[in-house]
Amino acid sequence: MSNTNPLLDVTGLTKHFPVMGGFPFKRKIGAVQAVDGLDFQVAEGESLGLVGESGCGKSTTGRLITRLLEPTGGSIKYRGQDITHAGRKQLAPVRSEIQMIFQDPYASLNPRQTVGKIISGPMEINGINPPGGHEKRVRELLETVGLNPEHYNRFPHEFSGGQRQRIGVARALALEPKLIVADEPVSALDVSIQAQVVNLLQELQRDLGIAFVFIAHDLAIVRHFSERVAVMYLGKIVEIADREDLYDNPRHPYTRALLSAVPEATADEVPSRERILLTGDVPSPLNPPSGCRFRTRCWKATEKCATEAPPLVQVEGNREGHLTACHYPEVKETVPAPRLSKDPGVTA
Amino acid sequence: MTPPTPSAAAPLEVTDESVEKSLSPSTTKGSESRSPGRLAWKRFKRDRTGVISAYIVIFFFVIAIAAPLIAKLYGKNPYTTYASQRPELLDAFSYPSGPNGGMSSEFWFGIEPQLGRDVFTFLLYGIRTSLGIAVAATLLTTVVGVVVGVTAGYLGGKTDYLVGRIIDILLSFPSTLFFIAFMPVVYGLFVAPDENIPTSLRAISLILVLSAFGWASIARLLRGQVLGLREREYIEAAKVTGASPKRIVFKELLPNLWTPIIIQSTLMLPAYVTAEAGLAFLGVGIIDPTPDWGVMIQRGAQFYTEDLTFMLFPGLSMVIFVLAFNLLGDSVRDALDPKSKR
């Protein structure tokens, strides 16, 4: 996906949260390296999936892009405009184009406001006066997201989780954004509702040409939704590729392990592939391992992995746009072997 | 004389500010959506204790506001010493000559020993003064507490730390002792020691001093609430759409804070009524001849061995009012914050 003029261009994005401690005066005693040097682009109308375990920095990335958090380093460019450290006033014109859908539909709607107020709020703030007035536009939006326009005057507590999430989507759409950061938009919902909301988002993406950064930990949903997928581990992207490429030909051991963990609904008695069980826990982002961050749990790790951080590059055998950060990328043919769950190889 | 301890309940969900009595119940049409406020109102109406207490409290406020009118219809005033014109009202020991503290069709609640003032109008005006001061102090306390608490919670960091320490100091202060010691100092700031202190200055100083110590508890409660709300996703959603801090505080945060604010102030007001009366009783608040609940109780305490009636009226009315207001506060809390039910 070599787009010459991407909608969103993120380079070396870093966010470290300071850890304060000490007595009697608090001072910085460490930093949680939540996001550490991310590079990716999102083209217009494209959907980029961001997957990874809990705590790997996915949500932080989303909040950095929407500038809810101040990046520690790197740069975020929207349509070539640097918004890395832009203040609220400078951000104003961009604000309406980058919107966000939140994870928890119960916390993302103000319980004191009616649905109408929640959705028309963004328009008021940005001084948008649609023809026919705010109310007409809100009713349209409610219809777009599959809700009854008559619910205009209702309060959030009168809706179910799925309906609330639709309200959240309508709010994000109110400003006609070009990019929506969806931070685990369906993980708080029932599985049956998840499909509805994901399909709604997909329709919107297709019909309105909105680009998405879709954050999730569910590989199946990302596969369904995103054309391109980035896999994160401990604040870094370990692999980024087009959907088919990544799912058919994962090159990074971590991607491979993640994919193997997806339960498969097959009638066959023989499992079609080996499950790779990762041992140990994710290391603390306070003190990440040297070199490759995955090495403590990788069955292939060597000395080199401990000393040299693998760059995110197009390794041999990868298709265009398929980047992997690994010294010893997986090869498709030699798949079934690694039953190395009992042998974590090298320890930190 | 201490402000009410803040309830740590986090009333966020289906709760609302609109306990206003004006909220007409008849507006619940079939398809009309149920706002959090309307739900709270419905819950409140079901609470018998709360409704009865509300009527009692409203009754007290009405007679306080209408005191001059009632006094005019009744034909007496609280300042005239009726006994000096008609010495037959008091006996040789300056106690009311009639039975039951001189209660009669002319003096409904009897007359005061010694000076012979009319107890009924004195009580009316006393309630008026006391409630006026308590209401003003409550309003001022609430405003200061809300502003400081929300600011500290929303800004966080150093501001929060500083404000937090000030609150700690204020809350650990023995406020009653301080009132007694400090009230003369406040008067001294405005009036030379040999001059008379005007009543308005006494009232204003009382309001200021009561508020100066009262805001800390409400500020601390709100600071905590804001700290919790600040991280909510709907606040982030507002930020993503480019909302200004002003809009976030007033449109997103404040509506969610009305519940603790209202609960706190309804519990604070009766505490201020007793505090004000206590100070008057101790002689550092409003003093005779200004009619006041505390002044009346103080005078009553001088005569109660001989003339219990004079003590009974202010004492009983105050107990009823404070009890009713506290029960009302509890009911309001239960209605607004159903989860905190014991």
TrEMBL record, chain A:
UniProt entry keywords in alphabetical sequence: ATP-binding, Nucleotide-binding, Transport
TM stretches of this protein: none
A Pfam family annotated for this UniProt entry: ABC_tran
Molecular function terms from GO: ATP binding; ATP hydrolysis activity
UniProt domain ABC transporter: residue ranges: 8-259
Any one Gene Ontology BP term: peptide transport
Domain of life of the native organism: Bacteria
InterPro entries cross-referenced by the UniProt entry: AAA+_ATPase (IPR003593), ABC_transp_ATP-bind (IPR050319), ABC_transporter-like_ATP-bd (IPR003439), ABC_transporter-like_CS (IPR017871), Oligopep_ABC_C (IPR013563), P-loop_NTPase (IPR027417)
Family: Belongs to the ABC transporter superfamily.
Name this protein carries in UniProt: Dipeptide/oligopeptide/nickel ABC transporter ATP-binding protein
Organism the protein comes from: Streptomyces albiflavescens
Organism ancestry: Bacteria, Bacillati, Actinomycetota, Actinomycetes, Kitasatosporales
